[in-house]
Design brief:
It is a single chain. This protein is an alpha/beta fold. The chain has one domain (3-343): Luciferase-like domain (TIM Barrel), CATH 3.20.20. The protein has 13 helices and 14 strands. The protein has helices at residues 23-40, 59-68, 87-100, 120-123, 136-150, 160-163, 189-198, 216-233, 254-260, 289-297, 300-304, 317-331, 333-336, and strands spanning 3-8, 44-47, 74-81, 105-110, 156-157, 168-169, 182-185, 201-204, 207-208, 242-250, 270-274, 277-281, 284-287, 307-312. The strands form three sheets. The protein has an eight-stranded parallel beta barrel with strand order 1-2-3-4-7-8-10-14, surrounded by seven helices. A three-stranded antiparallel β-sheet has the order 9-12-11, with helices on one face. Strand 2, helix 2 and strand 3 form a beta-alpha-beta unit. 43% of the residues are buried.
């Protein structure tokens, strides 16, 4: 692990105990957390994207605001559901964001998680040509168009009265660094290998869509190895990035113990069904800093990845979440190999 960031699901609800009552609260507070995290030296500020729920949904305005209000921190998503995107409009927005942020972005995209709306992407005007329940084909098909667009391929026939006969046009703006900042959200061995073959970066979350009896961190570490192997075998020669997500809470105050002390007694992964797959869900880490250090050093996926995304309880507000990030930066991260954002952009491992 070289870097860490926070991952916010962007929950908001007018319920007792929540500091984040409205969508406006959530958006403004996420920007505030990003600003504070940037000053602490945290490397990344990432938001989850969910439609049809009281959570962060439309990330581009939020990411642009976060980028404009910070200096060093990377801003990104984990992940954008490609089923809901127009690939060419998304290509324009992503290029503009990359230019605004001067390359400080990590756009995670994938098929996304199950939504509360039944085939909600159809309400957005998008229909799966394969008519599959999971929509995986649709997401991959749209992602391929997105990659072609950001690579500068001329995809639209030009009006001969304006550009001459037989000319095709590329989307604008173009950002030459954008492709290096695209990540695919991988939840299985097959998608990990496919991501490597495409030469992209890889995000892996707090679950994998496999349940073999192995511990979660071992399954995830195997996915990372398969990704890097496929990347090399495909002939890519860069330094691909890899991130994993965890719920981690250093217990350094009475408030921490009140909120998360009982979570320290949970020591097992969970097995469940998501989107029809039998899946393994990672455990929550909550302990005194010296214990956390040993636990995370033993987490093979955390140590194999370059970036650790810490899921945060955003409804507890900016002050508490910045306290959690400060405690991790001060008491835990240095022992894991962390380099703060003042030392420059995060680098992946050379292929």
């Amino acid at each position: 692990m070289k870097a860490f960031g926070f991952l916010s699901f962007g929950h908001y609800a007018d319920v007792p105990g929540s500091v984040t009552r409205t969508a406006g609260d959530m958006l403004r507070q996420t920007i505030e957390i990003a600003e504070g995290a940037d000053e602490i030296g945290v490397n990344g500020a990432y938001v989850r994207v969910h439609h049809w729920a009281r959570q962060a949904a439309s990330p581009m305005p939020l990411l642009a605001a976060m980028a404009a209000r910070t200096k060093r921190i990377e801003v990104g998503t984990g992940v954008i559901d490609m089923r809901y995107e127009n690939p060419y409009q998304f290509a324009e927005e992503a290029a503009a964001l990359d230019l605004i942020a001067d390359g400080r972005i990590a756009l995670g995209v994938s098929r996304g998680s199950p939504e509360t709306a039944l085939r909600g992407y159809e309400t957005f005007g998008f229909h799966d040509s394969e008519d599959t329940e999971r929509g995986s084909f649709m997401a991959r098909e749209k992602f391929e168009l997105f990659l072609r667009a950001i690579d500068g391929e001329r995809v639209a026939p030009g009006d001969p009265r304006m550009v001459g006969e037989g000319r095709y046009l590329a989307i604008e703006p173009q950002s030459p660094t954008l492709r290096d900042h695209i990540w695919w959200g991988s939840g299985s061995r097959a998608t990990a290998e496919a991501t490597g073959r495409m030469g992209l970066n890889m995000m892996s979350s707090t679950l994998v869509t496999e349940a073999t009896g192995q511990p979660f961190h071992e399954l995830q570490r195997e996915q990372i190895e398969l990704f890097r192997s496929a990347y090399r075998q495909a002939g890519h020669t860069g330094s691909p990035r890899v991130s994993v997500s965890r719920s981690v809470f250093p217990l350094v105050s009475d408030m921490d113990r009140a909120y998360f002390g009982l979570r320290s007694e949970e020591s097992n992964d969970q097995i469940g069904i998501i989107d029809g797959y039998r899946s393994t869900f990672g455990k929550t880490y909550a302990a005194e800093p010296d214990v956390l250090i040993e636990q995370l050093k033993a987490d093979e996926a955390v140590m194999a990845a370059d970036t650790l995304m810490l899921t945060i309880p955003n409804q507890l507000g900016p002050d508490y979440n910045l306290h959690v990030l400060q405690a991790f930066a001060e008491h835990v991260a240095p022992a894991l190999g962390w380099k703060p954002n003042t030392e420059g952009p995060v680098q992946g491992d050379p292929a």
